[in-house]
Amino acid sequence: KDASKINGALNGGNNNIFLVNPMGVLIGKTGTITAGKFVASTTPLNDENVKTFFKARSCFSPAFDVSKQGNIINLGKINADNIVLIGNKVEIGVGAELAGQDGQTNAKTAHLIGNYVYVSVGKDKENKNTIKIDKDGFKGTAI
Question: Do 79 and 32 contact (CB within 8 A), yes or no?
Answer without folding.
Answer: yes
